[in-house]
Amino acid sequence: MSNFMFPENFLWGGAIAANQAEGAYLEGGKGLTLVDLLPTGESRRDIMKGYIPSLTPLENEFYPSHEAIDFYHRYPEDIALFAEMGFKSLRISISWARIYPTGEDVQPNEEGLQFYDNLFDEMIKHGIEPVVTLAHFDVPVALIEKYGSWRSRKLVELFETYSRTVLARYKDKVKYWMTFNEINMLLHLPFLGAGLTFKEGDNVKQIQYQAAHHQLVASALAVKACHELIPDAMIGCMLAAGSFYPYTCNPEDVYQGMEKDRESYFFIDVQSRGEYPGYAKRFFRDHGLNIEMEPGDDQILKEHTVDYIGFSYYSSRTTSTDPEVIKNMTSGNVFGSVANPYLDKSEWGWTIDPKGFRITANQLHDRYQKPLFVVENGLGANDEPAADGTVDDDYRIDYLQRHIAEMGEAIQDGVNIIGYTSWGPIDIVSASSGEMRKRYGYIYVDRDNEGKGTLKREKKKSFDWYKKVIASRGADLGL
C-alpha cells in the first residue's frame, strides 16, 4: 500500500453512542432507556440476554450510563479535540427517550431536541459532518413495560413518529443517517439490541424474529421518511460484521461458516434488497416460526431500501462442527468463535485480524453493490497512564495501522468505502462489559469502573498519530 491516498472527500472521524457517552440520564426531561438498567458486574451479561430482575434501577447496583463521561455537559471540549485531530465526521446517536421520554408522548421534549441542535451546531462550526444513528441500543423503558418493546407492532408506529420528528428537525444539519445500530445484535444480546425480556417457557426464537420483522419494517419506514424529508441525504443500515471462517476445509465446517454469516446478513439482505431471502424463509419453516406480517409489509420493505451499508468490524470469527475443536472457544466476544491458531487476541479475547477487515469489506461489496461506511473499528485495551499522565498506546496504533492499511487495499480492490469512524475516539463506557477499563479512545478520560475520577481529558499517543493519518489522507500510517 505504498503512498496510497484515500479519496479527497473520505469521511475520516470517530464514533460514539448516546448511551455510552452522554450521561445526564434523567436531565433535560429525558426518560429511562434500556441501557440505564444495565449495571456493571456479573449480572450484566444475563440482563443483556433478556433476563432482567427489575425495570427500575436498583439501589445496590452501579449503572455506568447514568453519568458515563458526561458528554452531555462537556461536548464542546470534546468536539474541539476531535476537530484538532482533523475529523471530517463524527458518528453519534440520538437518545429516543430524550426526544420522547415515554416513547409515546403527545409532543416531543423540546429540551432534548435543543440539546442535539446545539451539539450539531458545535460540530458544524468545526467543519465536522454529523453521522446520526436513530437507535443505538436504545428503547425507552416505558415501552418495554407497556408493550414488551419490539415484540409489539405498536413500536413500528412509535419509531416512525420519532424518526420523522428528528429527521424534520435536523434536515438542514444532518445528511448521513442510519436506522438501527448493529441490528443483528438482537439475536445475540436481545435486551441490549431490542429491549426484549424473557421468562421461563418463552419461545425465544419466535419472539426474536417477530421483533426483527418489526424493526425491519420500522427501518424501511424511517428510510421512506428520510427520502421524503431530506432528498439529498443518505440513510443506511448497520451490521455488526466479521466473517466466519471454517476451521477446516471439511464441507460441514464450510457450510456452517456460511450459515453463521447468514444469521447476520439476513437483516441486511432485507434492508438492502427489500425482501426476505429464501434461506430465511426456510429457517422459519424448519424452526416452526410463524412471523406475523401485516398487509403491505412486503411493499414497504421492497420500496424503501437503504442507500449504504454501515458496518462495525473488530474481529473475524472461526467455526467448526468438530466437538473437540469447539471445546477451545475464545472468550470475550459476543459472537462465539473457536480459537484461530493463526491470529493473536486482545486482552479481552477478541481476535485481531486486519486481513479479515479487507475480506469482510469485499464480501459486503460483492453481496450488496452499495456504498459501504466503516462506522466502528478499534481496539479495547486497559490503558495505564504513566506518572506524568501520558498514555503510550502503541498497541492501539499498531492495530489501527494494520486495519486502515487493509481498508485502503479494499478500496484499491474496487470496494466503495465512503468513510471511517473509529470506535470510540474518546474513552467511553464499554457496551459489552460496562467497564471504563476497556478503553478505545485517542483521548483518555479519568474515570474508573466504579465511577470515580475527575473526568479530565488527556491526549494519548494515538491522538497525534491519527491526526497525521487524517492530514495525509491515509498515506502516512507510520508503518
Instruction: Please indicate the count of domains.
Output: 1
Share of β-strand residues: 5-15%
| Rg from alpha-carbon coordinates | 21 Å
Name the CATH architecture.
Alpha-Beta Barrel
| Pattern of helices and strands | EHHHEHHEHHEHHEEHHHEEHEEHEHEEEH
Compute the number of strand runs.
Answer: 14
- Please state how the strands of the largest beta sheet are arranged side by side: 1-2-3-4-5-7-11-12
Could you estimate the helical fraction of the residues in percent?
A: 25-40%
| Largest beta-sheet characterization | 8 strands, parallel, barrel
Report on this model:
- This protein is of the alpha/beta class.
- The protein has one domain (11-471): TIM Barrel (Alpha-Beta Barrel).
- 39% of the residues lie in helices and 13% in strands.
- The protein has 16 helices and 14 strands.
- The strands form 4 sheets. Strands 1-2-3-4-5-7-11-12 form an 8-stranded parallel beta barrel, surrounded by 5 helices. It has a two-stranded parallel sheet with strand order 6-8.
- Helix 15 (394-412) links the parallel strand 11 (372-376) and strand 12.
- The longest helix is centred in the middle third of the chain and has 26 residues, at 204-229.
- Pfam families: Glyco_hydro_1 (PF00232).
- The active site is at 376 (nucleophile).
- It is an enzyme of class 3 (hydrolase).
- Its EC number is 3.2.1.86.
- Belongs to the glycosyl hydrolase 1 family.
